[in-house]
């Protein structure tokens, strides 16, 4: 009923209600399930005003990856994607069991995933019979992930990528021979890792995989 009510307030992607109900049956009752994301301020305000009529629902603000250099640094930085069963093996972090929680898949995103991830916080709350929060009993603040600083010169990296884009296939490394620091590490063809943030569509993935240029 809450999902149907929500669909009259804001536009939900096709199949959202069915997918959420299906996921709810497979997830623990205490695990939050994302209904939709990337709302504009008008939609957020609409939902907030109607929260009393949407039992069990809440608005949550989160962060998503953004790669400002797009394909220029894709091979160095990598991308993030939803944690798979394989990602969960050997990692006891409960965050990985959350639906659509993202982890580093390749390159630096994968190598430094745990450092960048940070530590989750927790909150114990008292709710009423319809699941609405009454009061907070206990709260443990989360900790932000660490910063990873590279020796890469961003503008030099961008220039190298643009130069290589004139070729069919090429790569280049610019290194300080005295210190071993890498200033540019470019490769072409490349891809835009922003496509993977929030989940890449099957059509887009196939387009990237089959692109012979």
Quick recap:
This protein has 213 residues and is of the alpha+beta class.
Structural description of this entry:
It is built from nine helices and six strands. It is α+β, with helices and mostly antiparallel strands and 213 residues long. A hairpin with a 5-residue loop joins β3 (122-127) and β4. The chain is elongated and about 65 Å long.
Q: If strands are numbered along the chain, what order do they take across the biggest sheet?
A: 1-2
* Number of alpha- plus pi-helical segments: 9
Give the CA-CA distance, first to last residue: 49 Å
Strand residue percentage: 15-25%
| SSE string | HHHHEHEHHEEHEEH
Average pLDDT level: 86
Which structural class do the helices and strands define?
alpha+beta
Uncertain stretches: none
What general form does the structure show? elongated
C-alpha-based Rg, rounded: 21 Å
The total strand number stands at 6
Keyword list:
alpha+beta, 9 helices, 213 residues, two-stranded antiparallel ribbon, two-stranded antiparallel sheet
Question: What is the secondary structure topology, with strand pairs?
Answer:
Elements lengths: L1 H8 L6 H11 L14 H9 L24 H4 L2 E3 L2 H4 L13 E3 L2 H5 L1 H5 L4 E6 L5 E8 L13 H11 L5 E6 L6 E7 L13 H8 L4
Antiparallel strand pairs: 1-2, 3-4, 5-6
